[in-house]
């Protein structure tokens, strides 16, 4: 993935990229649930 002149390579190659995506999805779900519990 390139942004301008810098190339961003996901840590651990394809698997690392997949894990990062999964982690972000899980984190957003957990944050949403926590916010709903607080409100």
Automatic annotation (TrEMBL):
Its recorded name reads Uncharacterized protein
Superkingdom of origin: Bacteria
TM helices/strands, residue ranges: 12-38
Keywords, ordered alphabetically: Membrane, Transmembrane, Transmembrane helix
Q: Does the keyword Membrane apply?
A: yes
Which species is this UniProt entry from? Micromonospora chaiyaphumensis
């Amino acid at each position: 993935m390139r942004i301008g002149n810098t190339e961003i390579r996901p840590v651990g190659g394809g698997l690392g990229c997949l894990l990062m995506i999964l982690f972000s999805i899980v984190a957003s779900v957990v944050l949403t649930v926590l916010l709903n519990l607080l409100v």
